Amino acid sequence: MQPDIPLLQQTILFSGIEAEELRHLLTCLGGSVRRYGRGEFLWHAGDTVLQAGIVLQGAVDAVQYREDGAMQLVARHTAGGVFGEMLMAAGEASPVSVLSPEGAEVLFLPLERIMEGCERHCEGHARLRMNLLRESAQKFWQMRHRVTYLSEPSLRRRVLLYLQDCRSRQGSDCFRLSLSREEMAAYLAVNRSALSRELSRLQQEGLIEFYRNSFRLHFSPEQLSVTEM
């Protein structure tokens, strides 16, 4: 089955590669498409990851389990999202489990095919490797941002920093989160009830507006950086 070419062109991994070149590249890479059911695991913590995945439909979650058995959300990847590329390049055991919360369709690409040259010496293959480096760098900074959230003792600052980063990524004061309230609480390592109370306070103070997963922010990055708000 041929993956959705326009969707793949929107990912960082295939950015700048023309549709026809991308079709040839996918054949060269020998990728495979797999479907997963609700709650099905793509891999478990401790597994060695040899392929990068691109979500074609649905979503996949990277999770960790605490000592008490509670699951903590590390990252969510929706349609067009790339995952596993840093683990693939490192060649080490995965520190996270990856599962499909509601079902997903995923394109897998093997590391050796990405890194090897091809007989055609195509520009697309060279660009793919550069894009992989760029994607990995962006993931590194996203992880650094999460460390920043979790290092904040104040729940308010933790929430505001997260929402500010969502605004920066989506380029608008208005945006929609892909995480449910429970998943957002898990990602920020806070109690769900405490998160809901804090969001309500922020809305009452006029700093944010929200309805379910749709948000509008009324504070500036400058305000966040210089005050405790």
Automatic annotation (TrEMBL):
GO terms for molecular function: DNA binding. Keywords: DNA-binding, Transcription, Transcription regulation. GO terms for biological process: regulation of DNA-templated transcription. It holds the Pfam family HTH_Crp_2. Gene3D superfamilies: Jelly Rolls. InterPro entries: cNMP-bd_dom, cNMP-bd_dom_sf, HTH_CRP, RmlC-like_jellyroll, WH_DNA-bd_sf. Residues 171-219 form the HTH crp-type domain. Residues 13-133 form the Cyclic nucleotide-binding domain. Signal peptide: none annotated. This is Cyclic nucleotide-binding protein. It comes from Vescimonas coprocola.
